[in-house]
C-alpha cells in the first residue's frame, strides 16, 4: 500500500507518530545533556619524573630516553614529546586517533605497566614516575576566591573546606585547587654557631626528619583482644621544632640554641594567582560526563551561595568561567534562532503558496525538529554548539521534502483530484527519489562524522543530527504532510485554470526555452563563470576554526628563561593597573609561573615555567576585544620591553600550537639553535606579518659549576655530595622533614639565614672523616660558569626545536603561511636534520587527511545511490556536473563579505552540495516521468522544470532566509554565508543548467528515435 495514502486512510497511526514526536521532543529537550562544545577525547597522558640535581640534558639522556624507549614499543602510541628541565622530565604521550574513549582505560593501564618496568633501570636518585591520564579533564565551573588579610593557614583551611563541600554536590566529579599560598617551616642555623660547635647540617636535618615521622609501634594481645599501640605524636608546632635536641660530640643542644625557626611563604612559589589585582586562589569544578552540566552548575551555584553566606567578611567568590551559564544561554539562543528560522519558513511559504501550505509544511518542519531532539536523547547526543548548529544547517534540506509533497498534493487537488488520489500520485512519483536524495545528503557529511581524529570526534554530532533529522523529515513528509494536506488543502474543479499559468511560471518557461535554443552558449557561459569563480575562490582567506564568541581573550607574557616567578608577577601587576582603568574590562585573572586550570575543552595551558605569565581577560562582548587587545598589546610591548608580550583570542575547536610553526629536529642542540635562528630570519624576511618569532627552547641559562678538587677533597674526607649539600644549604635549603597541620603536609627546610651575608665561596663544608668544617675553597678549584640549555624538547625521541610565530589579528594563518612557506622550505639543513611544519597548517592538514580517507567511500555511496535511482548513467552524470559549480556562489559570498573559508564553511559547502544534488535528482526524475508520457524532449524538459520551479525557489528562499539568525554567530557566520551565497547560485544551476545538460545528453537519442520513426514503413 502507498504510505502517503495509508497515512490518510489510517490517521490514528499518523497521529500517534505526531504525538510521539511532540511529546518525545519535549521529553528530549528536558533530559538532553548540555555542553558548550562537543566532548572530544584528549588521547594523551603525561608522565612526570623528578631527577634532582641533574641538568636538562642529563634528564633527557638518563630519564626521558629510557622511558620513551619503553613507551614507544606500544603499538597504540602515535607521538611522544617531552620537555626536559633541570631536575624534571615531563613526557606527553599521544595515542593514535583510531582508538576511542572506551579503549583508553586499558591503554593507560598498559602505559603504566611499561613505565613501571622502565623505572627500575632509571639512575639512583630518580623519583618514581607519575602517570597522569586525566590530562584532558575539563573544570568548566571555574572561580577565583580572594581573602585579603587572612593568614595563609586560614586560606588553606577555606580551600579545603570548599573542596570537601563541593565534592558532595550531586553530579560533581572533581574539584581542582590552584594558586594556594605555598608555605614552609624554615630552620636557619647560625653559621658561626654551627661551625663553632662542630654541628653538621646533616645532624640538624636528621633530627628534624625523625621528629614527626609516622612509624608503627606494634600491638599487644590480651584475652583474645588485639590492641594497636600508636607511636608518640611528633612535633606539631613551630615551638616544638625549635625545642628539638641535637646530639653532637657527646653533648646535647637544643635547636633554638643554634638556629632560628620560623614559618613563612616560600620565596619562589610554583604559581602566583591574582584576580582583579588581589591575591587569590582558584578552584575548578568538573561535572560527571553522564550529567547535564547546566543542572550540575545550578546545584553548585546553590551550594556556593549557601557556603558563602556564612563566610567571614572579606572572602569573595569571583567567577572566571561558568560553563553552565554559557550553555544555557546558547540553548536559549538556539531556541530563538530556531523559532526565527521556522517563522521565516512559514512566512515565505504563506506568501508564495498560501497559508494552508505554510501550516502544513511548517507543522511538518516543527515535528521534524522536536522529533530529532527525541532521538538525540535516545542516542545520548548532547545539546551543544555543533549539534544545535546541525539542526539549522539541515533546515534547508528538512523543508525541501515537505515542500515537494505539499506542492504536489496541492496542485493535484486544485486540478480536481481527491486528497487520497493526490497523495498517492505525489508520493508515488517522489518518495523514492526523495529518499535517495536524502541519503545522499546525509552521506555528504559522513566523511566528517566518521573521521577518527579529534576533529571528527568534535564534529560527530553534526553527522549524527543531520542523519537523524533528514531521515525523519522524509518519514514525516510522506506521512504527516499528506494527512495535514488532507485536512487543509481544498479540492478544485476538474479542468480548472492551470496551476502553472502565472506570470512567473510563463516568464521562466520562456527563459528556459531560450536557454535550450542557445544551449552551447549557456554551457560556455557556465564554464566561464565557474573558471572565474574558482580563481576567485583561490583568493578567499583560509582559516581552520574561527575565533570563539566567548568574550574572553588571553595575555601570554614570557621573560628571559631563568627569570623568577616574583619578577614575572611584578611585571604583570603593571598590566593589571592598566586594565583596572578600562571600562570595557569586566574582570581579569593573572597567573605567574604557569597557566590556568583547563576550564574549556579547547583551552590548553602552557607548561609550568617561572618566567611565564598568563592573563585571562573578560570583556562585556566580543566586539570590544579587537580594539582592547590591540591597545593592551601596544602598552605591554612598550611598558615591558624585557619580555615577550602577546595577546591571543580563544579559538573554537580542537587544535593547538602557534599559528605558524616550524619544527627543527636533529641530534646537536647547538646546530638546532643555529637552524632555528636561520628559520626565524627567513620567516621575518619573507613576510611582514610574522610577529614575535621565537623558539620553544628559549634562552640558554647561566649555570655555576664548582670544579671538585678530587685529590685535596678526598684527602680531607669531603666527597661531591658534601659539596652539593653545603651549596644547597646556602641557597635553596635542604628538605628536612614534614610539618603536619591537619591534612596538610608543610615541608621543613633547613637553610642558611637570608641575612647571613656570606657568599658561595665563604661556605664551610663538613668533613665526616675529620669531624670538622673546612672552607669550601679548600676542596674546589673554582666556581666555573657555563651557559646551558634548561629547556630541552624532544619529539619521538629526537631533540626537536620549534620555531613559533604570531600573526596580525586581521590576517589568517593560511595567508601568512603561503607567504613564508617556499622561503622556509628552501633553508638548507645538514644531513641528519629535518624541517617539519606544525601549528595550524599541521592541524588543518591532519584533519583534511583524515577527512580525505573517509570521503572516497562517502562519494562512492552517493554515486551508487544516484545511479541506482535512475538505473542509468546519463542522469547521474547530469546531476554531478552541477556540483563543482556550487562553488561559484560560495566564492562570491565569501569574497563579498570578506569572511574566511573555515572548517564550518566546509560544512556549509557539503550541505550545499547535498541540497543541489537533491534538487537535481527530483528535477531529472520529473523530466523522465514527463517524457515517459510521450511528451517531446524539450517540451518535457520545460514542463517538468516549470513544475519544479516553486519547490526549488521556495526551498532556496526559506533556507537562505533561515540562515539570517546565524549571521551574528561567530562560529557559524562563514557557514551561513557559504550556504546563502551558494544556494542562491545553485538554484540557477538547478533551474537552468540541469535542463540544458539534460537536453545535451538526450537530444541526440531523441533525434535518432524521431528519424527512425520517420524511416519506418507505414
TrEMBL record:
Q: Does Transmembrane count among this protein's keywords?
A: yes
Listed GO molecular functions? Answer: xenobiotic transmembrane transporter activity
Task: Give the record's GO CC terms.
Answer: plasma membrane
Gene3D superfamilies from the entry?
Answer: Multidrug efflux transporter AcrB pore domain (3.30.70.1440), Multidrug efflux transporter AcrB pore domain like (3.30.70.1320), Multidrug efflux transporter AcrB TolC docking domain, DN and DC subdomains (3.30.2090.10), Multidrug efflux transporter AcrB transmembrane domain (1.20.1640.10)
Keyword vocabulary terms for this entry: Membrane, Transmembrane, Transmembrane helix
Transmembrane region(s):
12-30, 333-352, 359-381, 387-411, 432-452, 458-484, 520-540, 851-870, 877-895, 901-924, 952-973, 979-1001
Q: Which InterPro entries match?
A: AcrB_DN_DC_subdom, Acrflvin-R
Q: Name one Pfam family in it.
A: ACR_tran
- Its protein name is Transporter, AcrB/AcrD/AcrF family
Q: Which domain of life is it from?
A: Bacteria
